Amino acid sequence: MHGFCYINNSFIPMTILKGILLANKPPVPYTVVGSESEGIAWAKEKIASYPQ
User: Fold this and answer.
1) What is the model's pTM?
2) Nearest to 1, CA basis, from 29, 37, 22, 23
3) What's the chain's Rg over C-alpha atoms?
4) Least packed by Cβ within 10 Å: which of 6, 30, 31, 49?
5) 41 lies in which domain range?
6) Which letter does DSSP use for residue 51 in this model?
7) Spatial CB neighbours of 24, under 8 Å, sequence gap ≥ 6
8) Separation of alpha carbons 11 and 7, rounded Å
């Protein structure tokens, strides 16, 4: 697994999610973004950096 990408475009739920993830760090890289295009860019970057 390369990581998790949470997409949320609402400020308050995004802030709450970031706080939860800060307190309970997942065992893989993660990000919280505000749009699908940001999420796809992050995912492509993670996949490209994975050794083959």
Assistant:
1) 0.78
2) 29
3) 12
4) 49
5) 4-49
6) -
7) none
8) 11
